[in-house]
Amino acid sequence: MSEASCSELDDRHPDPGASRGTVIFLNGTSSSGKSSIANELLRILDEPYFHLAVDAFHAMRTRQEMPPEQLTTVLHNTWRGYHRAVAGMAAAGNNVVVDHVLSEEWRLLDCLDLFVPQDVVFVGVRCPRDEVERRERKRGDRPPGLAVRQLAQVHAHGVYDVECDTSRADPGQCARLIKEFLPHRPLPTAFQRLREKIPDAVSPG
């Protein structure tokens, strides 16, 4: 179907009561394999999904040089905008695959505040230190040691719906594990449990 045809269908059949979308939230260090899993998920999932990768949001930003203090603010605002874009897509009824690095606690708190917790499938993408270091060296497009610096914080919250180890399973196997989990999601979800575990997760009002 052409883009024009899709646009015409949107105009003729508005659906303001559409249900919320599912958010498959992949969390792991840089070079842990999140993007590869996300690409496999889009290939094998039965329903339409959008892969919203934070790297794509960073890539939209101007390349001009900025002083460190300004860059810190811009990066923080990029992450905040990314979270709100994901929440907005899901609220509009779109299924989303998120590819994230929760290497700072505020990022998790922001997501817990914004996302409907029962709609989130929280996936821990784990990879041992030696392997992420090897992948990082092979890629050559990340600052050396970035993944190792992220390891201590990324999984610190300790709660997931499902986990995979990309040193033991390839992206296709990880994606199939997640797909098989989707119809059997138990309640409370990991995001619901984290909201109860972390009192500051939801801001007043």
Automatic annotation (TrEMBL):
<dbReference type="InterPro" id="IPR027417">
    <property type="entry name" value="P-loop_NTPase"/>
</dbReference>
<dbReference type="GO" id="GO:0005524">
    <property type="term" value="F:ATP binding"/>
</dbReference>
<feature type="binding site">
    <location>
        <begin position="28"/>
        <end position="35"/>
    </location>
    <ligand>
        <name>ATP</name>
    </ligand>
</feature>
<protein>
    <submittedName>
        <fullName>AAA family ATPase</fullName>
    </submittedName>
</protein>
<feature type="region of interest" description="Disordered">
    <location>
        <begin position="1"/>
        <end position="23"/>
    </location>
</feature>
<dbReference type="Pfam" id="PF07931">
    <property type="entry name" value="CPT"/>
</dbReference>
<dbReference type="GO" id="GO:0016740">
    <property type="term" value="F:transferase activity"/>
</dbReference>
<feature type="active site">
    <location>
        <position position="55"/>
    </location>
</feature>
<dbReference type="InterPro" id="IPR012853">
    <property type="entry name" value="CPT"/>
</dbReference>
